[in-house]
From TrEMBL:
Superkingdom assignment: Bacteria
ASCH domain location: 82-204
Name of this protein: ASCH domain-containing protein
CDD domains, per database record: ASCH_Ef3133_like
Origin organism lineage: Bacteria, Bacillati, Actinomycetota, Actinomycetes, Micrococcales
Residue ranges, compositional bias (Acidic residues): 31-41
Region named Disordered: 1-45
Pfam family, one: ASCH
Biased composition (Low complexity): 13-30
Length: 207
């Protein structure tokens, strides 16, 4: 079992009042003209994520920064929203571990970021965790990021993942099985492949 991120399709972010957020001037010229038209379902999901973000950032104490500095582009937009694993069932299971405080770590492969569509995690990053139905359930903040070979992931990190019996042996077995079935194209599982070990803290959970 693994907790690699499963990102939904790119969705337009909406502000809480339903108005589309402005495009920054430095990005406007670089936007492609052939973006697919978002579906009504996509728009509704984006609105739910944005509403969650507006509520979560205030309750987590992040709104005070916006009140002092003013709502800049990055502050108005919701952070990335994603779910764990490769199935709704796994997403719900791992999210549950986060909500109960057992899971404070997640692992991914460096190779997953090769395409440039998703940036590598970094300390201080915010993320919205979705459940298996795509509903926003939690806001987390990345507290540490390390990149190590698969066979150098340690007991402490394996325990932070909160899965199975929380041992390193269980972590290796579950993640090898997961990555063998979800390996990026052109890559093969190996004991020295680079793994992103990310630690995070729970800032807010949906009521």
């Amino acid at each position: 079992m693994s907790d690699a991120r499963d990102l939904p399709d790119d969705l337009p972010a909406e502000l809480a009042d339903g108005a589309a957020a402005p495009v920054p001037p430095d990005l406007a010229d670089g936007l492609p003209d052939d973006l697919p038209e978002p579906s009504a379902e996509d728009l509704e999901r984006a609105e739910r994520v944005q509403r969650f973000w507006e509520s979560a950032r205030g309750r987590a104490g992040l709104g005070r920064v916006v009140a002092v500095t003013g709502p800049a582009w990055g502050e108005a937009m919701a952070p990335p929203a994603w779910s764990f694993g490769d199935s709704p069932e796994l997403a719900d299971e791992l999210l549950g571990l986060v909500l109960e405080g057992t899971k404070t770590g997640t692992a991914s492969l460096v190779w997953e970021y090769d395409g440039g569509q998703e940036p590598m995690p970094a300390e201080g990053d915010l993320s919205i965790l979705l459940d298996g139905a795509g509903e926003p359930r939690a806001l987390v903040r990345t507290t540490e990021v390390r990149v190590v070979p698969f066979d150098e992931v340690d007991e402490e990190f394996a325990r932070s993942e909160g899965e199975g019996d929380r041992t390193l042996a269980s972590w290796r077995e579950g993640h090898e099985r997961y990555w063998r079935r979800n390996m990026p194209a052109g890559r093969e599982f190996s004991r020295d492949m680079p793994v992103v070990c990310e630690r995070f803290e729970l800032l807010y959970r949906a009521p």
